[in-house]
């Protein structure tokens, strides 16, 4: 009897440690269904968030949604034999016929600013389970009105869709930081009648109404105290990455510099269908991730496995993704 009691106490203690290890994720799962409805698998889950400290800053990553697509080789490694792409996926314990794409806007609370990096799909994505940023803000203890600055890595739809809500600015107290080259390209009327016309219309609808409150930046410009921009073009003409530093701790927000933790990082020279200038995008990947690997800097990649934060080390001619665990918690 004493042995049984002791084992129960140990089990309860171990469970308590597990709860302490992941408070945000477990809290949301516990609250996803009302009391008495825990078995209802159709109940809408609350958005997934992950929070950690970066020096004196607080970082919150929100999972805006996920998308499962078929035929990875038609998106990644488009200049490779399809069997080569499939073999790399299989060797890394991933299915060869499907891939999951996630979307990870981030909030950086500096104490004086609440900075949002990219906005997810917004209302346009909610019919398919995306557009969860607004709910993610609430889960993290913020409202849209708390956001004081929105910084955009680039102007593709999954990064700007949340800027407007019902025809009005979603973040009414915010100012905006946008790459000059990026905006000049997408807002240009000459995009009409080209493959870029859809992106042009999205920018006119979501970004152009906000230009009076926008600052347009170039390579090396400051975004906010502790945050600077670096041009990493190729995925789009003016794609930016953002350096964030607080109390000696560093984080690089890489946007879409690399879009898959295996196919883009282990094979950075493989072409990606969504990269507009494929050679330039590959050069930017190498430049950015060489720096990350050499300096041992943490990075947040918008499409990396949630919570989309980790490190990279050089391996096999490319880079191995090392996901965040408890580095920021102790």
UniProtKB/TrEMBL annotation:
Transmembrane segments: none
Entry annotated with the keyword Zinc: yes
SMART domains: Lactamase_B
Domain Metallo-beta-lactamase, residue spans: 102-303
Endpoints of the signal sequence: 1-32
SUPFAM superfamilies from the UniProt entry: Metallo-hydrolase/oxidoreductase
Listed Pfam families: Lactamase_B
Sections of the chain in a coiled coil: none
Record keywords: Hydrolase, Metal-binding, Signal, Zinc
Matches recorded under InterPro entries: MBL_superfamily_lactonases, Metallo-B-lactamas, RibonucZ/Hydroxyglut_hydro
Record Gene3D superfamilies: Ribonuclease Z/Hydroxyacylglutathione hydrolase-like
Family in the record: Belongs to the metallo-beta-lactamase superfamily.
Protein name: MBL fold metallo-hydrolase
Species the sequence originates in: Rhizobium bangladeshense
């Amino acid at each position: 009897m004493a042995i049984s009691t002791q084992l129960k106490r140990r089990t309860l203690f171990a469970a308590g440690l597990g709860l302490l290890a992941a408070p945000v994720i477990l809290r949301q799962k516990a609250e996803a269904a009302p009391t008495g409805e825990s078995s209802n698998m159709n109940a809408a889950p609350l958005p997934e968030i992950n929070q950690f400290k970066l020096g004196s800053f607080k970082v919150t990553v929100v999972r805006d949604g996920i998308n499962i697509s078929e035929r990875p080789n038609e998106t990644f490694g488009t200049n490779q034999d399809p069997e080569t792409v499939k073999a790399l996926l299989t060797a890394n314990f991933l299915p060869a016929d499907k891939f999951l794409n996630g979307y990870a806007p981030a909030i950086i609370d500096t104490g004086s600013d609440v900075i949002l990096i990219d906005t997810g799909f917004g209302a346009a994505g909610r019919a398919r389970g995306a557009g969860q940023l607004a709910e993610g803000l609430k889960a993290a203890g913020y409202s849209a009105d708390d956001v004081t600055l929105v910084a955009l890595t680039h102007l593709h739809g999954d990064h700007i869709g949340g800027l407007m809500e019902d025809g009005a600015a979603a973040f009414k107290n915010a100012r905006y930081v946008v790459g000059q080259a990026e905006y000049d390209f997408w807002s240009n009327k000459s995009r009409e009648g080209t493959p870029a016309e859809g992106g042009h219309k999205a920018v006119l609808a979501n970004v152009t109404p906000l230009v009076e409150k926008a600052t347009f930046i170039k390579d090396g410009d400051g975004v906010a105290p502790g945050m600077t921009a670096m041009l990493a073009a190729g995925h789009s003409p003016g794609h930016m990455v953002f350096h964030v530093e607080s109390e000696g701790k560093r984080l690089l927000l890489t946007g879409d510099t690399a879009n898959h933790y295996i196919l883009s990082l282990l094979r950075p020279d493989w072409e990606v269908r969504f990269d507009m200038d494929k050679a330039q995008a590959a050069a930017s990947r190498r430049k950015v991730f060489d720096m990350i690997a050499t300096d041992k800097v943490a990075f947040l990649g918008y499409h990396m496995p949630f919570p989309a934060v980790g490190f990279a080390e050089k391996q096999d001619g490319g880079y191995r993704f090392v996901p965040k665990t408890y580095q920021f918690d102790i």
